[in-house]
Specification:
Elements: H1 7-24, H2 28-34, H3 39-47, H4 66-79, H5 81-101, H6 104-115, E1 121-124, E2 140-144, E3 147-158, E4 165-171, E5 181-187, E6 193-198, E7 209-219, E8 224-225, H7 231-267, E9 269-270, E10 273-274, H8 279-307, H9 313-342, H10 349-359, H11 366-380
Parallel strand pairs: 1-4
Antiparallel strand pairs: 2-3, 3-7, 4-5, 5-8, 6-7, 9-10
Helix pairs in contact: 1-4, 4-5, 4-7, 4-8, 5-6, 5-7, 7-8, 7-9, 7-10, 8-9, 9-10, 9-11
The structure holds flavin-adenine dinucleotide.
Length: 383
């Protein structure tokens, strides 16, 4: 058993660490307030290969795996969760479903532009009336000549305001339940397709979250992504993988909370001593460090398992659930350690707390993760 990162991933990590510290950190508060990530930072991330991280090199991507992605997510989120969420939706959702199900023509059409950042990807499963129970979706794709006509609404779609390409999950056979759900590729300029309201969120604010309106969007047969009736199955497989990325994002936020706190306790004095001298403060730091280490190991184990092709889905659930919950805890502790300043926008840690909370909700809430973990446990230990 080897817990060291491979050399190529260490090299990537160091480049991304420097980039995030120099190009993201100084602007994170401003982007949070403006609720927008500038195109220029997306172009810089594309330049570093972060927008095609898992896309094969033959299509202009970096051809890397889940462990590499986890490392990148941690480094970016250590400075700003919203920027990491933008990458998570692009790489871990949209591109992930294309990787699973796209045919060679679709890969040729979309991968080079996605990898170059010329096209941003978004992924639409959630609807106004269903998120956890995603199989209850209502969006319909009805046969229309050789193609389809898609009608419905999607809710909480990350990157929707700037994306050029959307994976849309819709019912193609209402009588077939989950096996009657398929996935489609919809381009932004498709007829009868519009981006609706942008959410004014608690956290992850520089990452845009919108509703999508599909009012009878006509698409050709080439828009079907994967096999007919397998769109929901593929979407669940995407989520199993995407959760590892959200776990890594959470680790980045927890690390940020700890590192900011470690700096602060050395500078801030109370009762004639630095805060670092107080055992109550030390215990908070120790708890944060312990939980951070445990979360990172869970995330790396889940990522390495996917890279080996084993993909035990329960590992991803455990990693995502634990990492997201300890990230919120770490951020709350960091605010406590920063005292009154922790409750102001002067410091990064208040943003980490707002960003971390999303990780307990998106890509399957903590409750949903517990349901999935318990289901696996009970299946492996029948009565
Ligand atoms: C910022 C943001 C970005 C997002 N990005 C995307 C995206 O890009 N694409 C996309 O498709 N979706 C996206 N989502 C949607 C996200 O995945 C859902 O919000 C999430 O799955 C929860 O669904 P819901 O909001 O409908 O909550 P609900 O399903 O209504 O759940 C409400 C509460 O009930 C609990 N609950 C539900 N069912 C059970 C149960 N059986 N047992 C116990 N408790 C239960 C939940 O845990 C939660 O606490 C995003 C959401 C947000 C907030």
């Amino acid at each position: 058993m080897n817990f060291e990162l491979p050399e190529d991933i260490v090299a990537l990590r160091d480049v991304v660490r420097k980039f995030a510290a120099e190009e993201i950190r100084p602007h994170a508060r401003e982007w949070d307030e403006k609720q927008w990530l500038p195109d220029s930072v997306i172009a810089q991330m594309a330049e570093l290969g972060l927008l095609g991280l898992t896309i094969p090199t033959e299509f202009g991507g970096s051809g890397l795996g889940y462990l590499a992605n986890a490392t990148v997510m941690e480094e970016i989120a250590r400075q700003d969760g919203g920027t990491a969420l933008m990458l998570a939706a692009h790489n871990g959702l949209c591109i992930a479903q294309l990787m699973l199900a796209a045919n060679p023509e679709q890969k040729t059409r979309y991968f080079p532009r996605l990898a170059a950042g010329k096209l941003i990807g978004a992924w639409g499963l959630t609807e106004p009336s269903c998120g956890s129970d995603a199989g209850a979706l209502k969006t319909r794709a009805e046969k229309d000549g050789s193609g389809w006509r898609i009608t419905g609404h999607k809710q909480f779609i990350t990157n929707g305001a700037r994306a050029g390409v959307f994976v849309i999950v819709a019912i193609t056979d209402p009588a077939a339940g989950p096996k009657g759900i398929s996935a489609f590729i919809v381009e932004r300029d498709a007829k009868n397709f519009s981006v609706g309201r942008k959410e004014d969120k608690l956290g992850m604010r520089c990452s845009d979250t919108v509703t999508l309106n599909l009012d009878g969007v006509p698409v050709g047969p080439e828009a079907l992504l994967g096999k007919l009736g397998e769109g929901y199955r593929d979407a669940l497989r995407v989520l199993e993988r995407g959760r590892v990325g959200i776990g890594a994002l959470s680790v980045g936020l927890a690390r940020g909370a700890l590192e900011e706190s470690l700096e602060y306790v050395k500078q801030r004095q109370a009762f004639g001593k630095p805060l670092s001298d107080f055992q109550a403060i030390q215990f908070m730091l120790a708890d944060m460090a312990t939980e951070l280490e445990a979360a990172r190991l869970l995330v790396w184990d889940a990522a390495a398992s996917l890279d080996r092709g084993e993909g035990e889905k329960v590992k991803a659930c455990i990693a995502k659930m634990f990492a997201s919950e300890i990230a919120t805890r770490a951020a709350l502790n960091a605010i406590q350690i920063h005292g009154g300043y922790g409750y102001t926008k002067e410091v990064h840690v208040e943003r980490y707390m707002r960003d971390a909370k999303l990780c307990e909700i998106g890509e399957g809430s903590s409750q949903v993760q517990r349901i999935l973990i318990a289901r696996e446990l009970l299946a492996a230990n029948p009565v």
